[in-house]
Amino acid sequence: QVQLVESGGGLVQPGGSLRLSCAASTRIFSQYRMSWYRQAPGKQRELAASISGRGSTNYADSVKGRFTISRDNSEKTVFLQMNSLKPEDTAVYYCNAVLQTTNSNYWGQGTQVTVSS
Predict the structure, then answer these.
(1) 87 by DSSP, 3-state: which?
(2) What percent of the chain has pLDDT over 90?
(3) Burial of residue 49, with CB atoms counted within 10 A of its CB: 0-12 exposed, 13-18 middle, 19 or more buried
(4) Cα(31)–Cα(98) distance, rounded to whole angstroms?
(5) 89 SS3 class
(6) What would the pLDDT profile of 4-41 be if each residue is shown by its tens digit?
(7) Which residues, including other chains, have CB under 8 Å from residue 78's CB and lie 6 or more apart?
(8) Cα gap 32→99, rounded to integer Å
(9) CA-to-CA distance for 34 and 95, rounded, in angstroms?
């Protein structure tokens, strides 16, 4: 069982920035594809960004050019740098880990991001 602990959410004004972190409790962190999903009120959970163990990234069209996902395998942590935030980015952001050999799937508890003036 992998524990994922997110941090870094909060309230920010439109145009501002936040950095989310997700720390994983696994010795084989580099073998996991790590992703950030988000779920706005009344909407389905959607993928925002993902990164493979080797660093290949993928982004939703809605966040391309504004969000950057990265990882530090030595610290077993994945980050989401969010710039130029918009009110429509308001959501609970969830960290997700998928072991690439078995597809075992784990979720964090979520962190609230609110973009409002």
Answers:
(1) helix
(2) 96
(3) buried
(4) 8
(5) helix
(6) 999 999 999 999 999 999 999 999 999 999 999 999 99
(7) 21, 22, 24, 34, 36, 51, 69, 70, 71, 72, 95
(8) 4
(9) 7
